[in-house]
Write the structure tokens for this entry.
Amino acid sequence: MPPDPRDINSRGLPVGWYDVMKDGSNFSFGCLKYVFIAGFLFFSFVVLSTSHRSSDPVSQSTGEPASAVAPAPNEGFKEPPQQESRELSAGECYDNGESPLAVFLQSCTDSHDGEVVGIATYDARDYPTGGISDQQAERACGAYFSDSVRQRLSDESLMFNSSRPSPASWKNGDRSIVCMIERGFHEPPLPGRLP
């Protein structure tokens, strides 16, 4: 049976897809509603089909949840515990921690941020007003600096640092200054022991 001529527009297409309207416009929004409905159905299908997947997939080999089979990416890595720089001994190497007083003990054969070159004693009866200055600490630690360390300190490829007694530890008899040499700003880590 041939199509009813009233259902075909002047271009030979079914009415509603592309219609020449009487008011002179040449586009009908009938086509857009079908595109919109098709897009909505497709989007709904995608959302519904992915929402039924488990957030913990099952391993094909064991049947166990995948999280029980494979460890998390950093699960085997244990960060060494931080310790206070005052607890270091001469000859120990470290990486800087989250605060100026906290460090991570490190092997001196691996790359590291600094090395304890010695423990000096500050000989004074009373705790200095304002604490022990950087210059006083550096003078006390100077005996532990080799000539090559002194040279590198002057060209700033190395820096001097120290951990000094607090007023509270001073009252308990602490007079030690932990003498540390660290890599300079923007310098690579130290590759081994300092000469």
In short: The longest strand covers residues 114-121. The chain has a mean pLDDT of 77. DSSP finds five helices and six strands in the chain. Strands lie at 82-84, 93-96, 102-106, 114-121, 158-163, 176-183.
